[in-house]
Design goal:
With about 750 residues, the chain is of the alpha+beta class. It is built from 23 helices and 31 strands. About 40% of the residues lie in helices and about 20% in strands. The chain starts with 10 loop residues before the first helix and ends in a 24-residue tail after the last helix. The structure holds one RNA strand of 75 nucleotides.
Length: about 750
RNA sequence: GGGCGCUUAGCUCAGUGGUAGAGCGUCUCGUUUACACCGAGAAGGCCCAAGGUUCGAUCCCUUGAGCGCCCACCA
């Protein structure tokens, strides 16, 4: 049989076949493992969710990395006999997906979403999402990921919708979700709000204008916002302006004529900066908004939601701010209000990172999650938080990590996490786009006999009429931030809320068995978006941490060290690499050399190197199989003292590798195995053993063959989590010992450290 | 303005309180029946700088330099 094996391992021939075999075996599903007695019923649990890739396109190497690492973890734990569950899924990525479809629609058909209407447009998005989903699933399988596909979820499917509505209602009833008019990040291009975390800052050099504002000189980079400025703010301790009193009114000449300005004294003003005086535009600037709130000042909208000036701008009304700016500067110059201009002023402008435009702060009625609002925990399994205790979402998030119930690896990211929480403002969760979970709120349109009813009703199920006055209702047109549903992921995928009753998971349900999940493995770039929000949602809604450990991997960068991203267009399709070098080589190249939390540049050369290793492993197998017949008729071989010593070294290797795996040092584990396999086993042990395989007496030959077989069998098992395809294929070629029907390598037992395999 | 990371062989990067490692690349040799996607061997590094702790530091501490990232309301 061994002679039939080609001298070069061709992954193309085997990978798809092996994956089908795994899938058909059902062993990706822990229930099947228990039913077929592969796993003990009461075995320890290992569970993990796959960070759901966005259905915006194809996978990149960053995804490939997380798949390689996570699958290694999962296969390792499964081989150790744990009840192992890894849940697949995809994310609807509301804004990004909608933006992409809108873009295509406009480019290909010259239409906007409004031309199609909400229903038809959503059909397009869903179709796109479906295709994208299929591509992604195909790619995930190509990587060899041992995910339980029977439990696959989508952030926007029906079950998750129920979870979202339930979460919304629960948080609304606890007064954590509220509707309010506050300053938000408005994207005039996509016509939606976005959260603070979705903003990407871009540096821009623009002229900086110094304007005469009555007796003061104020500076601005955005003269187009200044129409509404009727407050002038300075520090209370600034001696230069000691003669002015807080609340004092002065008459000044401004862009469109004389106005009355009011003096405001506030400590946020930096006396050192510029003239130490500024005017404020509360409707279009977060800092100004805060000042206005503190002193109860008027707020006026200057720019509309399309980015055009409103009537307050007088002659400039209706003009887009981009066009209006030079015109306004021109007018200010003519009126003699422009004191001087700094040409090279760099400041940061906010853009929507989800492929949108330049952010314009606006005051809008939106839905928020109040992160500082106190509420009573209905029940809690969180260390340091008791039932009925008064908490806020911020304190919950802090407590879970502070008390080490959740451990972040590497630890330095603790700081990042805490500082994010400290600076966290209320989370704006409503979006004005169409793709996403509809906000489960209905507004009564009826005026009852006694006057307006106008109730807002939050409901888990759709409602047709107002429960108070029976009048007609209309649903809130907005959708929810994607991360609202992603935040529920660890428990919405495990059956919440159906599998829980009165705050407790039903006995024997997935929720009871697999939550909290063991580990969350993801890139450090989404700590805020996702990791923190999962902690928020899970602790708040089910009184439980979502995961015990967070393992953060670094980012894969391109050859120039740039982040790989859709917008940069420098994405490398892992499928190309798999096609050229095989999934095992691709996986190994993403694990070795990647220290936790550190970025890695990946070159094709590296992948090729590990392709060579795959081939080496294959040829070692061929060699050993050449002599396998010798081994077959042996009973217990007695190994020489040297062989025993080498087996002891192997046992030490097993121990080290296991230790590294437990410590999330996969790069160490894999590198050790690589090195041992090639430079110890192949280069030294096999070479030393060769003479004994051909020469000597029969007993010596049998012993030599058995010896190599012994080591190799162990190695194949140790390597399986990292390179599952080639090891499984080799395993299948091995002669079965005795009459036992051979099982798949993926469910073989992980080698024990103290006895020989 | 805060915080974090990085600086190790030509390139990309691991790593350790005690003569320095991997992949790729370079050079020499090798038509041995597992593998040329190979083997044997070689060259190549004041482990960013300065100070400190130590019997001993690339590793720990301090300071500095360069690069990068994240956060932050300097109009």
């Amino acid at each position: 049989m061994s002679k039939e094996l080609p001298s070069q391992y061709d992954p193309k021939d085997v990978e798809d076949r092996i994956y089908r075999m795994w899938e058909q075996s059902g062993f990706f599903n822990p229930d099947v493992c228990i039913r077929k007695k592969v796993t003990a019923k009461n075995a320890p649990v290992f569970s993990m969710v796959l960070p759901p890739p966005n259905v915006t396109g194809i996978l990149h190497l960053g995804h490939a990395e997380m798949l390689a690492v996570q699958d290694a973890m999962v296969r390792f734990e499964r081989m150790r006999g744990k009840r192992t569950l890894w849940i697949p899924g995809t994310d609807h990525a509301a804004i990004a997906t909608q933006a992409k479809v809108e873009d295509t629609l406009y480019k290909k058909e010259g239409k906007t979403r409004h031309d199609l209407g909400r229903t038809d447009f959503l059909k397009r998005v869903e179709q796109f999402a479906q295709e994208s989903h299929d591509t992604i699933v195909h790619q995930v399988k190509k990587m060899g990921s041992s995910l339980d596909w029977s439990r696959e979820a989508y952030t926007l499917d029906e079950k998750r919708n129920l979870a979202v509505r339930t979460a919304f209602k629960q948080m609304y009833d606890a007064k954590l979700i509220y509707r309010g008019s506050r300053i938000v990040n408005w994207d005039p291009k996509l016509k939606t709000t976005v959260s603070d975390d979705e903003i990407e800052w871009r540096e821009e050099t623009v002229p900086f204008y110094y304007l005469q504002y009555g007796p003061f000189v104020i500076a601005t980079a955005r003269p187009e916002t200044k129409f509404g400025d009727k407050y002038v703010v300075m520090h209370p301790n600034d001696k230069r302006y000691a003669t002015y009193a807080h609340g004092q009114k002065i008459e000044i000449e401004w862009i469109n004529g004389p106005i009355t300005a009011t003096i405001i004294k506030d400590k946020v003003i930096d006396m050192e900066f510029g003239t130490g005086v500024m005017t404020i535009t509360p409707w279009h600037d977060a800092v100004d908004f805060d000042i206005a709130e503190r002193h109860q000042l008027d707020k006026e909208q200057v720019i509309d939601y399309d980015g055009k000036l409103l009537p307050i701008a007088g002659e400039f009304a209706g003009i887009h701010i981009k066009k209006a700016r030079p015109m306004i500067v021109e007018k200010l110059t003519q009126k003699g209000l422009l004191v001087r201009t700094d040409a090279g002023y760099t400041h940061r402008i906010a853009t929507n990172s989800r492929g949108g435009g330049v952010i314009e702060p606006q005051i809008k009625m939106q839905w928020f999650i109040g992160v500082n609002r106190e509420f009573r925990m209905p029940h809690s399994k969180i260390k340091g938080v008791k039932k009925e205790q008064l908490v806020t979402l911020k304190t919950l998030m802090q407590t879970a990590v502070k008390n080490k119930q959740i451990e972040i690896i590497p630890r330095r990211f603790d700081k990042v996490y805490f500082s994010w929480i400290n600076n966290l403002r209320d989370w704006c969760i409503s979006r004005q786009i169409w793709y996403g979970h509809r906000i489960p709120v209905w507004y009564c349109k009826e005026r009852s006999k006694r006057g307006k009813c106008g109730e807002s009703i939050v409901s888990i199920t759709d409602i047709k009429s107002c429960p108070h006055c029976k009048g007609p209702v209309e649903q809130d047109p907005d959708t929810l931030d994607t991360w609202f549903s992603s935040g529920l992921w660890t428990f919405s995928t495990l059956g919440w809320p159906l599998d829980s009753a009165r705050g407790k998971p039903k006995k024997g349900s997935d929720l009871a068995t697999y939550h909290p999940t063991s580990v969350l493995e993801t890139g450090y770039d989404i700590i805020f978006f996702w990791v923190a929000r999962m902690i928020l949602m899970s602790t708040c809604l089910i009184g439980e941490i979502p995961f015990k450990k967070v393992y953060l991997h670094g980012l894969i960068r391109d050859a120039q060290g740039r982040k790989m991203s859709k917008s940069l267009g420098n994405i490398i399709d892992p499928l190309d690499m798999i096609g050229k070098y095989g999934a095992d080589a691709t996986r190994l190249s993403l694990i070795i050399g990647a220290a936790p939390g550190n970025d890695m540049k990946l070159s094709e050369d590296k992948i090729r190197g590990y392709r060579n290793f795959t081939n080496k492993l294959w040829n070692i197998a061929r060699f050993i199989l050449l002599h396998a017949e010798e081994k077959n008729d042996t009973g217990k071989a007695k190994f020489s003292s040297k062989q025993q010593k080498q087996l002891a070294e192997l046992a030490a290797l097993v121990k080290k590798v296991t230790k590294h795996m437990d410590a999330f040092e996969f790069h160490h584990a894999a590198e050790l195995l690589y090195h041992y396999t090639w430079h110890t086993f192949a280069d030294k042990i096999i070479e030393e053993t060769k003479p004994h395989l051909t020469g000597g007496d029969r007993g010596e030959r049998i012993r030599a063959a058995a010896f190599l077989f012994e080591i190799y069998t162990t190695l194949i098992k140790l390597l399986h989590p990292f390179m599952p395809f080639v090891t499984e294929e080799i395993w299948a070629q091995f002669p079965t010992a005795g009459k036992k029907k051979k099982r798949l390598l993926m469910i073989e037992r992980w080698p024990q450290e103290n006895n020989k395999t």
